[in-house]
What we know:
This protein is of the alpha/beta class. The chain contains five helices and eight strands; from the N terminus they run αβαββαβαβββαβ.
Amino acid sequence: xxxxxxxxxxxxxxxxxVILVTEASSATVAEAAxxxxxxxxxxAKTLSLSVGGxxxxxxxxxxxxxxxxxxxxxFGGKASMLGPEEVEAITGHxxxxxxxxxxxxxxxxxxxxxxxxxxEVVPAAGSRNSALRISPERMAELTGAEWVDxxxxxxxxx
Length: 158
């Protein structure tokens, strides 16, 4: 179970982090923001991408949008989003619960600088109704993420 792999990850690396399980779905940015009482931009959404056969995760602010030019410059090619079955097979997490923790297999993780606007962000925790609160810096540290700038400039939209 995906939520279980995230629980095991935090039990091993950060036992102080509390996983929040809600009755309401938090599968979309809007649902997650409502369920956790934060603005949509504060949701840390995890995108599963592939460039030239390389698969990796990019975590961005909830309202951020990828900038194709920046993605191409940063990762060396045009990015493709993985399909739902591929995402679940590679990460071990279903769409709506994808996060950079407790992955089925190691994947490179990148955190977009859009997350740095917040002291605390709310990423999913492996299921469509689980999440956690964490600082962007600690999330990057725990996942071995590299900071990148791959989203469009401008104010986030709700």
